[in-house]
Amino acid sequence: MVVALKERGDGLPGAAEQSGPIEQLRYACSMGAMQTAAAIPRVIPITHCGPGCSDKQHNALTAANGYQGGGWGGGGVAPSSNATQREVIFGGTDRLEELIEATLKILDADLFVVVTGCIPDLVGDDVGSVVRGFQSRGAPVVYAETGGFRGNNFTGHEIVARAIIDQFVGAYDGEREPGLVNLWSLLPYQNTFWRGDLGEIKRLLEGIGLRVNLLFGPDSGGIAEWKAIPRAQFNLVLSPWLGLETAAHLQEKYGQPFLHIPLIPVGAKAAGEVLREIAAFAGVSERAEAFIAAEERTYYTYIEAFSEFYSQYRWGLPARFAIAADAAYALALSKFAVRQLGLLPARLIVTDNPPGEYRDAIAAEFRALDHDTEGTVEFLEDSYLIHQQIRSAAFGHKPPLILGSTWERDLAKELKGVLMEIAFPASYEVVLTRSNVGYRGAITLLERIYSTTVSRTA
Prior knowledge:
CATH class of the largest domain: Alpha Beta
Order of helices and strands: HEHHHEHHEHEHEHEHEHHEHEHEHEHEH
Number of strands: 12
CATH architecture of the largest domain: 3-Layer(aba) Sandwich
Largest sheet: 5 strands, parallel
CATH topology of the largest domain: Rossmann fold
CATH superfamily of the largest domain: Nitrogenase molybdenum iron protein domain
Helix content: 40-55%
Distance between the termini: 38 Å
Strand content: 5-15%
């Protein structure tokens, strides 16, 4: 590992200035956005890249991250050009054209998304020209230039979304449908719990009277929802930063307004606040209040039962926590831990390398965890540095709660703490529909935190 760091004014490493190789990565490269395409029902990515690139992306984001499976078009289904030295020297457009032609004959999909790796992007393959040839014949194919040097899979996600919007959804000058909303939130497959989380968010939005273009996952209507994007009343960006670029593009392209709420709601307190803000923006506040009241009755019934356990075992339970996760989950779970569980933050680390222009706003959200609790967030990607920061945290005499990834397993043992794998990679979790957000997901999260705590001392 080679890392060059400069110190900040407070003596901590300046994450934005980190350079060199990174130990134990917590995201994929830009071409990992092949899984963004695979997350849309009946959409198949076509990968134009070197041998093994797409397999590595798939295995990292699915097999080593909750064993999520590849879905209709991910993993072993996705065709690849497997570019070799020949394509480096002579270019790979002929091979790509042959691959797309064969894919259209053999595979059944509503849309194919060509994503590129480093080799074609570096040698200058005119992928757009090849794909436009198929588009002129009416074939459902789009392309996105996602060479790994362009950034991580968060970056690639925005590139793929924009490609589908511009090349497949296209122009629109019709009316908008009141109450229809496009949701831009968690990154599919990168977030281990994205399927269940998006499903729960959809349930909440429908509960307050909205209809949702979910766009990704088993609860999505697939390309029909993508085609309906321009008809939506507004775009909802439920994330600290991911999706903002796409929403801004939609505003420019269709004149569509967007609402940005950086907090993904976990627990009743956050859910009530977020749903009221969305309802006010959409003009459905009256129905929202009835739904929130019903959800809170059920939620606090469970919390009341939990309080008996909490009062009996409180002396052996964690009092402070550390979190190392992408910005969306780090913020959401930190606020839940502070506001609903009464825990104090010992170390807050964001690992997804948000663009510099968003970092001040993200840091401000962490400074306002609750009315009487603030936190200082660190933007770090390298696990060696992350573990140094967590080791130096003050957890007191109680076992620390670490909300992190598989990379923190040995660290948790060293600190005699409790580890919850909630971030990529999560290799000791099998995740199908589990959710951590909203009312229902928060109850599930609470059960798992304290089941893991109790079993640790058994």
